[in-house]
Prior knowledge:
The protein contains seven helices and no strands. 50% of the residues lie in helices and 0% in strands. It has one domain (3-136): Serine Threonine Protein Phosphatase 5, Tetratricopeptide repeat (Alpha Horseshoe), CATH 1.25.40. By secondary structure, the protein is mainly alpha-helical. It has helices at 3-23, 26-33, 53-59, 63-71, 87-93, 97-105, 120-127.
Amino acid sequence: MTENQIIQDHYSIKKQLVIAAQEGDIQTLISFVNGKLDIPVDANFCDSDGCSLLHWAAINNHKSIVDILLDAGANINITGGILGETPLQWAIRKNYIKLSYYLIEKGANIHIKSAEGLDALQVAARHCIYINNLFIL
């Protein structure tokens, strides 16, 4: 296998991981993070935009994927993406109240500021459709 093929294989695997987190593909993600494949995968892997698998699971409301990643050692407070937000802030942006509450229960820090200088409550105030959703924080 050439060096170029190895690089392409790693790129393909990383792309598969992101897609699995986005689409809630539990089996694919478990295969990678539990080392069932011969390729080591870090639960804190980030794509080219700096978005972690946990970010993608949160913005797509995949609690089961969140659990798998947290069990595999994912950093619940990792910041990423253009706005430098946490998975909690992404879930709040999308009004995923149950998942937001769950992330807080699991230890998500509501005080982390994004690149815009917003913490979780400020993101909620700006993006929540229902004012009652603010009270989870």
